[in-house]
## 1
Amino acid sequence: MEIILKTLFSSKEEELYILDCLSYLMMLMALATFLVLLFQNVPYGRYTSRKYGFPVNVKVAWFIQELPAFLVPLSLILWASPVKINVLPNQLLLGMYFCHYFQRSLIYPFLIRGGKPTPFASFALAFVFCIYNGYLQVRYLSHYADYPEGWVSHPCFITGSCLWLLGWITNLHSDHILRNLRRPGETGYKIPKGGVFEYVSGANFLGEMVEWAGFALAAQSIHSFAFAFFTFIVLSRRAIAHHEWYLEKFEDYPKSRKALIPFVF
């Protein structure tokens, strides 16, 4: 792995420049995605359409598309001589990243109950993004991120870490509520209740957005900010679409419940 990377980049400065460029490109992609999502919902789940390619089993799709976000970074740690791996702030930030994607790639897909197939286009784009972002986040943290002494006690790191943990727990709990909406043998959609769903329709999305916003605050890099920004753009639109769908589908849907931000929006 290290030999391959040295072949691609002649110097550390060159690779760091490329990582920065990839971050800015991710933000541009987020803005382009925002414009597209103004006119089209993300084609998955209840919004699935065959015009976006042949269907892929939802469990298979989730497992394969998320796996690179875990395996690509893991290979960078094991075989690419990570010079920052013994630095505490870097270790903790890498731990946050791997904690999320271990659950998302190796546990979450096998907990899915039912679920509509994923169109191939959505599956392929998610697969490519996980490779892209996995390399970007972990290569920077394991090789280049340089934090001042005592950074783990800095208010930004402490606040960001707490937000990451809050978001991660919210995301896990919200996914648990969604999985258990139907009893065995039941089909169709139901109104989610409990937890943060009492306040917003997109509780699972809000959790993940808070998670990566906290990660970006703790990491203080353009790379982590780009990821948090991209996550916000995509998941906020999903939350709004879900909220509108629930209001149209269920006459008794709680009118006080917001789309994404409790009591606000």
Note: The CA atoms of residues 42 and 238 lie 7 Å apart.
## 2
Amino acid sequence: MQQQQQKKYNSSSNTPINTPPIEETLRGFEWFTYMRANSPVVYDQQLNIWHVFRYDDVYQVITDHHTFSSADVPNFSQNNFLKDTIVAQDPPDHRRLRQLTNQAFTRRAIISMTESIRQLTQELLDQLIPLGTMDIVSDLAFPLTCNLIAAMLEIPIQDRRLVYRWVKGVDSNTPLLSREDVIKSHNRMGQELYDYIAHILEKRRREPCEGFISALSTAMSNNAGLSDDELLKFCVLLLVAGQETVQNLITNAIYCFTKYPQSRDHLLQQPEHMPEAIEEILRYLPPFWVTVRRTTVDAVVGGKSIPANMIINAWNASANHDGQYFADPEHFDIRRDAKRHLSFGHGIHFCLGAPLARMEANIILPMLCKQLKNFRRIPDRSPDITAGPLHQILSLPIMFEA
């Protein structure tokens, strides 16, 4: 931990329990290392939540859905965006939703998107390569993933800019002068998004086709399908969360390749290793850093007694760097077997879109490595990285040979 960094302490244990600012050297992982060794399960008195850091304990929290619930969790499943969606439900509701939505995420449906992914990626690269520089986030990862998810949801090309606006959550046409303005803007755009997706769903109910929306609309389990409200909420969840996940995966990959250029060079020589490299990227720098749960009963985690109805932050980013499961975990090694990482969760809440995210990365990243010749970071322009449950690289300027 850095000397100059201000820490908060649990008054009973003198254990630092705040997340540090994440800088380019990824000092957040130094914090995880310290916590796994000294306080792997710790109570945060100020926030009235528990933190869990070791792999075994994180695994316990995210897989035992009877004891650690996804429902009725403040600032998570009670959030309007997530409320009543598949990620914020326990069985039996979760089981029913999963059975229905799985019918749209078939292997055949995912493979059918291959050409669209390749085409949209190439169109963007054709525009950017002559420039010799780009911000990998704003110029490529963000618009590309917005276009991919919009195509999946059958949103017409002329309306894709609306998707950019909704995903960013910022109305560029309206100056935001206060917190109240921000809240009003978010609420207004949220309603626009729901109304727009509802219109598309209504059209597909009337005119089914071979697309993803039609597959969701016609999915049946025990003679019942998704209600209009469930279908709408799932599509909105897919649009926002699905876009963010793949954007972060692509951006994090380029971050790793520029930090460890020998890994990129290896993949240029042996592209068949890209699937293993993607798993290591997911382990080393996951798209989401933490999973939130609520105890339904008194529980014991890592030898610590946690009362019922407590909120737990299970740090999957820390679990991914647990030396008991990953040798030399701070070393980025694209040839390691990283499949046990917890970046997509585990158990009943394993990420439904994980196969799609992996496929997209397996198409997009080889194209970037091959066509952005000798890409590297621009000197004196550091990445802009935010900290928190959604660790996110907001800006990553790179240069390459046009």
Note: Residues 15 and 209 are 57 Å apart (CA to CA).
